[in-house]
Amino acid sequence: MLVGMPPPRNPPDRPLPPELSATSSHGYNCRCVARHFGLDPAPYGELPACSLSERQYRKLLVDAVKLQDKAKRLAAARDVAGAHRTYGRMREIAQRLDRTDLELAAVSDLATVCYSAGDLRNARQCAEAVLHAFKISTIGIVHFGQYAELRMIEGSREVAERVLISLSTEEGEVTKARELIADQRRRAAFRKAAEPGQFPPELLDTHCADELELRILDARVSIAAGDPAGARDALDEILTALDALADVDAVREQVASLQAMARAERARVRQTGGEDADARADLLRLSAQHEGRPLAAKAGIDLAADRALGGDFPGAVEAIVAARDELATAGLTGDVAEASHALGGLLLMAGEVGQARDQFEHAGRLWTANGDTAGLRRLDVALARCAAATGDWAVAEEHVSRARESARTSGEWPDLLHTDFVAATIGFAHGKDPRAVLDLLLPLTLAAAEYRFEFTAPQARTAWARDVAGPAMELLMALLARLDERRLAAELIERTCAVGAYTGAEERSLDLIGAPPTLDVGPVAEGLPLAALGSVTSSLPLRLAPPPALRWSPSSPMELDPWLRLAAERYHLPRPVAETVETWPAAKPGRETFLLRFADAGHTFLTWRTTEDLDTVHTHPIDFALVGTARQCLDAASPTPHEGENVADAVRRSLSEDAFGGFAGEQRLARVLALNLLPADLIERLRCAAGSGNRPLLRIQPSPSLAGVPWGLLALPDRRADHVLGIDEIGICFDSDERVLDVADVSLLAPAAIPRRPPVADGPPVYLLDPRIPGQSAFGELGSVLGKQDAASPLIRHLDARLAEGPVLPAAGRGLDLVRRTDTDRRLLAELLARPCSRLVFVGHVSRVSDEHGAQTALHLSCSADLPGTATPIGAHRPFTAADLALSEMDTMPARVALIGCASASDFGLAEPFGVLLAAVAAGAGLVAATVWALPTSAAVPGSDPMSELVIAVDTALAGDDPVTELCAWQRSRLARWREKPEPAASPVFWAPLTCLDATDDGKTWVR
Fold it and tell me: Which residue ranges are recorded for the region named Disordered (predicted)?
């Protein structure tokens, strides 16, 4: 009797293929089929299914399907042991039925279960067995013409291949993984293009859930190929797409599984990139959604590390042990190994080296049993750290060498970078040949620094710089100091400082909901040419451009260039061809220009040189404690509000006798800053240059830790103490009250890699003075900064004089018409800057509206909330951010710009400094006047108007021939008045924060 599948219509017209001769099951009841066609049954083997009745057959088939459903549920709950048992019973039934399709379904699912449990060896065996059986079954199917079964076993092949994709990815076989993914997509396209009814619905991927799984696998491949940045961005998009499918009944369970898979993968990428808070959010969500199941226990292991860092070490250890017990009960040996490894890491951090080693070795035994090569690589790194902690350098180097070789063989760039860094750390601590350590450490530091720019999200770039590139840079700078490699150290500082502008938006648009559309830009008068409104997203469509190729001096290339080529070769980094940018500006004849660049790398490092002698290098490490003291003193005196402090209290604190309200307190601050931040050789050279009769120019690019320093105010010490000074002893280093301003002019130095557009044509000045902000009272936080003005006010008289000289923008009949306007929004700004104009003077509020990156630094214009932009509205008002400028068509500025507002020069205080200050430079401004801290309004000193004095001085200087010289001269006059009569109205708190970012002599008008 023939039972089971329907028989083929025609008997086989060929002898049994040799591939089938050793098999007893060819996909269905082959012996019965042979008898059905009157063939000799002997070659086909005697099978149990031959004796089954149709009723018996159907019952067993139903039982098999039920077992598969049960096993899938157990696997989803990560009950590995239960899933194994259930799939075993399913396989027994499949063999009784002579149903290869059921057998392959069970074994392919088992491959997935084994992989999820960390049993990589058995996962591979199952997956490869499925693919081997698929080939044999295909031959049998063709022989008997039973093509329906081919469609039934197709899904098992897809599942097995996805396991092999994951295994290939973990072993660094990126090419193989990509080939398998491409094959799956090709077959999926073929199935969708076939006639209706050719394939079962589950193989047609109607809702694209299978494609989203392939995209998750693609993301894993990207990580293995050295592109975690691309993987992170892809995972964000995948999770968004999965959220849209969450309520579709047909794929609800699959989507839930894929969401967990993608979120766990993203948490791993975020941890690698240093985005600890975001990674923790992913893990907490996984833990909450899967409470009581092994997936929650697995997430709890990673969360335990946060508990330990928060000071709850016993609680963290207890949580990991409990999670490990739960995972062991479920049979998840791979996750058990992860738990032991995590526990070992905590114990090593606590100094319990012996116990840590025991935990690492326990993980290693499981990884060995599972055939987990990547896990064994991590074991070697962990044991190397244990050996180094006890001074057993030979064992440490043996382990780390094995880990490095394994990472190199795997081709996984992040692992290679990590193992190389561990090797360099051990070599440095052991006192190994410093040159050998340099050969390892310098390329990996350059590679880590370059890789930061591959991330789209600013938060990810910041985290990568802090937690990956930063530690490598710290160790490298310490090594270069040990080797006395001043030139290499100086070039590293200059390369670190040469950050580029935001780039990557192919179409200038503010449609942040979807892909940026192609815009039909209308006349400027119709408003700023932006796309439809959209609220701010976590990741603007902007990238930070990496530094281009740099040149050290006219006579000397960068010594880093061959190291950069080595880093690109060793870590497979792209090296796009870019124009070479000079790192020095042109110097004015007869005037010595000093170039100072600071970079934070644990300690803060200064490199300085002069345009008269570019090839002589001066580098100085400034101890982080000295920088910390300087910042503490400056923060205590600055009027920028502290956390929880209101503006009025901040101003009162700043104008106290111990801060900027009394000469003694201000002078003490100026001396503390100078002693901590200015090296003796620089001061000596400055005084020497000033003695020639031509005032030198000091141009400074500060690091984030020093962005708020008023450099011109710093006192110049006459000698250095031979011991650590108390605050009351600093006077012994000074014979007079000579300040930097007394001997030099000072300006900020723009990063070398900022691309510059040509400025707009010359024309009338543009004034945006104290714009009225929608929904804000004149006396509120975003109220008036100039206070009540009238026709007799000094600022209004100054504006009237400007109007007498010629037209201004926006058009006005009198000075009062330029102040507190209600129409000075982004639309008017776009219209005004589209015309010829000589300068832009903005006086108002500047703030960072969100996050810790420059893109969300904002001007507060008269913009209503319904205007497009990237900032979340503040009531009825939407701030105008640097991102808005970068994403709009308003990309040209006049040659001179003033941004007079609270800490408008604070770009340099951020890990990504491209805020409104540098955005103006990129848009064509050669010179930008700004302030380094929050400006108190004139209301702080009744009867005086220091804010108007500053605005008048800035506008006058910008209209002159040499704004930097004129503004520094004005500040010297303020300093003289302060010395003569140290009263609040003359306090440096009003005039010292003013600075100019001068890029007029940089000679870099280029567009990336």
Answer: 1-21
